[in-house]
Amino acid sequence: MTVATVSHAGSRPAVNPWLVAAVVVVPTFMEVLDTTIAVVALRYIAGGLSATVDDGEWVLTSYLAANAIVLPITGWLSAHLGRRNYFLLSIAIFTLSSGLCGIAGSLGQLILFRVIQGLAGGGLQPSSQAVLLDAFPPEKQGMAMTLFGFAALIAPVVGPTLGGWITDSYSWRWVFLINVPIGLAALAGCWAMLRDPDYLIAQRQELRRRPFQFDSIGLSLLVVVMVCWEVMLSKGQEWDWLGDPLWRVQTLAALFVAGLAGLIFWELRHRTPVVNFRPLRERNFAGCCIIICGAYIALYAASTSLPGLLQSLFGYDALSAGLVMSPAGVFAVLAMPIVGRLLGRGLDARWLIAAGLLAMTAGNYWMSQLNLDISPGQVIWPRVVLVAGLAICFAPANVAAYLYTPLELRAAAVGLLSLLRNEGGSVGTSLAQTFQERRDQLHTLRLGEYLDPFNAAATSFVARGKAFFLHLTGDPVASQQLAWQELANLRQQQAAALAYFDCFWMFSALTLGLVLVVLLMKRSVADKGAHVATE
What we know:
Elements: E1 2-5, H1 17-36, H2 42-48, H3 53-56, H4 58-70, H5 74-81, H6 83-102, H7 107-121, H8 124-135, H9 141-169, H10 174-177, H11 179-193, H12 198-209, H13 216-235, H14 248-267, H15 283-313, H16 318-325, H17 327-344, H18 349-368, H19 376-403, H20 407-447, H21 456-473, H22 476-518, E2 531-534
Antiparallel strand pairs: 1-2
Helix pairs in contact: 1-8, 1-9, 1-11, 4-7, 4-13, 5-6, 5-20, 6-7, 6-11, 8-9, 8-20, 9-16, 9-17, 9-19, 13-14, 15-16, 15-19, 15-20, 15-22, 17-19, 18-19, 18-22, 20-22, 21-22
């Protein structure tokens, strides 16, 4: 591999790149939003379609599994179909399937349409990011990734709040139907403004001259790996993970490990792999994959734990919990342009990545030190620090990831990074639920060890409770039972709180550990006329 100066003049579109950016981030925002906006509507969807809540979860699982299958092969699809054609096709099918989801008459129909929506949506993030990278010169790619960050970061932050408001004010069907007018507008804008750059046209012409070879084995292995992974993450806690008496999780785990090993072995030896792992040989790209995946694990895990804490222990409804979490998105929007400007002025992206990870660490640690006597304002600021930290490191990580990646591997690299970003969200959600429940069990047992008639503090509490309930009911036996029940409720409340705070502490340790990955990266400055690796 050599290093050569690559001119982007022939690759930039004829229209203003800011106009291109404005139209391509809309489909990305729409697709990322769809991964979170339906979460709060699950109970309404299950009730509206006469299904159980557990069955309703397949609405999310099916979408994530289909999405994960497509993400790593977007480079192959873009190369053979043309990036513009593939992007427009993805927007059109995503919009159509969103409308079909909104009018679905049964849970089976909804799951089928969600699979189609996920397959189409998988092409939106990588394609829009690749368009932005080609539309802007190297010295302005920090701002380009900032624009992409608005969609990829703000959408999951506002998704639960928006979903709760739409569901409460209208119907769960509008969670999907709202995509139709937005998707049609995005389709018209992208059709009018997008053109494939010269190097992609040349690459496609070269592929046409070669005999067509489809990697069916690689695609089959990919389907097995991603379906097993997503189902295992979604249903693992419900099925008790490796303690599952029906061996469902164990079977999925074995298929996942065997399939992943086979996929890597096969694809690294195939001449035209459907999943190209070769970008991972570049140190910066591999490091940024780890950082982005870990950061999204922390974001989604905290975004799952915090509403659970507020709703279960503070009595917030879904909309109120969302309103407490939403101000963080405003500060993220304010932080991103500053980060983009710093990158444009030649600041090494590594230092911004490290600063953002440390801010995420501080935000999660701050939340781990809260208690049950806090006001809403005391929840808002730790959340602001957490989300602003991800906003600080998101664009620099995306700049550093592609700085040394050869142009011919960029499409594959974008697909891999998008996959790991999405899977980070899936892992974070599953990890938060599992860790919270396990720590809740632990703290319940530990707090109950000395809550017996021989504990002076416990007997004093019960005596006061008995007197209180006796005054209300006049029944000595019932008063005794109610007093002990009140003590049990207090124990459960404190155990749940400690479990949530343990989750935040664990997330802070995760993001602190990611700082070490930054130390392994190469200097990452996107200067004018930057050097881009080519093979």
